[in-house]
Write a structure and sequence with these properties.
By secondary structure, the protein is an alpha/beta fold. 40% of the residues lie in helices and 20% in strands. Strands 3-2-1-4-5-12-13 form a 7-stranded mixed sheet, sandwiched between helices. Helix 1 packs across helix 10, helix 6 crosses helix 7 and helix 8 crosses helix 9.
Amino acid sequence: MRVGVLTGGGDCPGLNAVIRAVVRKGVQEYGHEFVGFRDGWRGPLEGRSVRLDIPAVRGILPRGGTILGSSRTNPLKEEDGVRRIKDTLARQEIGALVTIGGEDTLGVAARLSGEYGVPCVGVPKTIDNDLSATDYTFGFDTAVGIATEAIDRLHTTAESHMRVLVVEVMGRHAGWIALHSGLAGGANVILIPEQRFDIDRVCGWVTSRFRASYAPIVVVAEGAMPKDGDLVLKDGSLDSFGHVRLSGVGEWLAKEIERRTGKEARTTVLGHVQRGGTPSAFDRWLATRFGLHAVDAVHEGDFGTMVALRGTDIVRVPIAEATARLKTVDPGLYAEVGVFFG
């Protein structure tokens, strides 16, 4: 069988580990051939592909990003998108497609598989860790590690100048990165999308820390919103999946804190730094296991499924189930860390 592989959405540490595992096991144990589609769903739309064999994936395990490239292309919004994909697969004699991505990429795979008969197997990828069907997604551990290290470094700068430092991390709908890195880095305030925040209360926590002769660190997810406000946006533009471009809440928060408390405040936006670089040991391990089990599903013809982590086991779940709802931070879990605020 010839098998196609694509990586969609934002880049993420561990993507290359999945590709490597899929190809290595698929070639060595099952005798399959592999084709990599370039730049996410744009590849099968435009028929752009490269050969994937064992020499092609040698040495890519520790590399960040993806050797196949990625994009946020939504083929369901392209003219004749489904037909063009099916024509590409037929022309290249592709019998199955391994789709590695997050909510949007897998959402397309679910529809192509369920409604149009395109044989897809999904692999979950998102640094936000917000796919409900899996305990963890690869990329999350690396992102948390990078954010934690940044917070550790910012403590000394905050203390040296006795100023507030606001750290903005990724997290559109889910605050997992903010929660984990904020707790691990000793932040004094953590703000997440699941809980609208009261700016007066935040300023109260900041003032309390200064009374203790301590310069506070505030960690805020990009999707966090004030109690009486809306999302802070870069601009009003939308991507092909209808998402607005976030980022800006950190700067807004720093200005409000400075205006209300009289204390100097600065912002650090980690942005794409969280996505880049070599994956952590855990993400290499998880991504590799996902790849191994994904190619098993392909070989067995178990299409329309996604591999997922449950405890220490890799299981298969319907892709449609995995994308039906997001995994967000439970209010009780958020309340646990509140003892460190202020």
